[in-house]
Amino acid sequence: MAEAGQNRSLVWDRGKTYALFIEYRESSDPEIRDELVRMYINLVEYLARRFKSRGEPLDDLIQVGTIGLIKAIDRFDIERAVEFTTYATLTIVGELKRYFRDKGWAIRVPRRLQELNLQVNQIVNGLTQELRRTPTIKEIADKLGVTSEEVIEAMETSEAYNFISLDGDLSSESGENFSLLEYIGENDKQLVGLEDRASLGAALKDLTPQEQKILYLRFFRGLTQTEIASELDISQMHVSRLLRRTLQVLRQKMLSFEE
Amino acid sequence: MVETDGRIYLELPIEKEFARLLRLFVSGIAARTGFDLDAVDDLKIAVEEAFLTAMRRGVESPLQMYFTTNDISLTIERKGKVAAGAREEKPADDFGNFILEAVVDELTHGGSDTEFDLRLVKNV
Q1: What domains does chain B contain, in order, with CATH numbers?
Q2: CA B111 to chain centre
Q3: Which has the higher per-residue pLDDT, A162 or B94?
């Protein structure tokens, strides 16, 4: 871990880095690798701090990030026209994201289902483009070589996924500053049957801008989840999760007005 | 679960934990019917809303759910008994209807004063 006397600023000696990498490639000497780790540990600390608000101890994040740094050192190709800091940043952030992704399951979900859930998530986009329409469960199952029931089970496990996931944070940018109340006017035809608009208005304030936007696109503009996913550049399953959570929040809020 | 002539009948306790079972159940039927991913998700929202509304309104256990499929649609019927007067609509139901209307093609409320019935149709 970080020791006194190390480089604290985010500036590195490129010449020294290059020389150490040449030496490391020739000798595979672990002491040289350690030297590189010491040189760049401040990059790990800097990146780990960016994830500090997600409830994990900083020391743990630095440890995870350090694994990413070591992987970057082992894999970095000095012949390629890319700075080591650029390459290492991607690897370290990738390691941190993976850590959060693996920790993101709110309840224990079998590894097989977690992996299948990710596969389904990935394959839906490709199939949608390939078929030029939303795929059926059977088409997803056939593509993955599993049964429809396994796909359904895997999709449902995504409900167990905790919302500290990084995808959620990144995607929330697309809904930034969105206010559903500004979009739904008093005479909005979709709201004609809704007697208690004041309750809904108050309930909407508890939603994030992204959740309000998804709600608006699905229930007021009538977009499908796949279309919303495309518009917000997130996965269909993520839209599904957010939509379900949004409805849960609204139901609870509306109920509290009844009591 | 009983299946007779393409109509599947399910009875389940009115407890929140069973909403998830119902979501899984309708996913399976919808997948077999040939609905796409978006429609399957719509149906999951629909049955959950129908179940939770019944729970809020104090429908007696077990809740009865009927699923009828053919090549072009899935019909879901909810049948439950409530105390007299419990059918009066409240804001949360109003919101629930708004959601249901958005995710299914047909929505019909039915039953007598002590019945809390609902019929939903989703076309493929």
Answers
A1: 2-123 (3.30.565.10)
A2: 14
A3: B94
Element (H, E) at A252: helix A236-258
| Nearest Cα to Cα of residue A241 among A140, A115, A121, A135 | A121
The verdict on a CB contact (< 8 Å) between B37 and A153 is no
d(CA B40, CA B46): 10
Contact in structure between A4 and A38 (CB atoms under 8 Å): no
Span A11-36, average pLDDT: 90
Give CA–CA dist B76/A240, Å, rounded: 21
> Which of A83-87, A102-106, A190-194, B40-44 comes out lowest in average pLDDT?
A190-194
Say what percent of chain A tops pLDDT 90.
26
DSSP annotation of B16 reads T
DSSP 8-state code for residue A159: G
Helix (H) or strand (E) holding A170: helix A166-171
Whether the Cβ atoms of residue B73 and residue B11 lie closer than 8 Å to each other: no
Of A200, A226, A247, the CB nearest to B37: A226
**Pairwise CB contact (< 8 Å): A138 & B36:** no
Partner-chain contact B91 A222, CB within 8 Å: no
Q: Is the pLDDT of residue A143 over 90?
A: yes
pLDDT in tens, B46-81: 999 999 888 888 888 899 999 999 888 999 999 988
Task: Dig out the tokens for A9 from the structure.
Answer: 């600023």
Whether ipTM exceeds 0.90: no
Is A255–B92 a contact, with Cβ atoms under 8 angstroms apart?
yes
> In terms of CA atoms, which chain A residue is nearest residue B37?
A136
Residue type, A18: Y
Q: Is the pTM of this model over 0.80?
A: no
Q: Which residues of B touch A254 (CB under 8 A)?
A: 91-92, 95
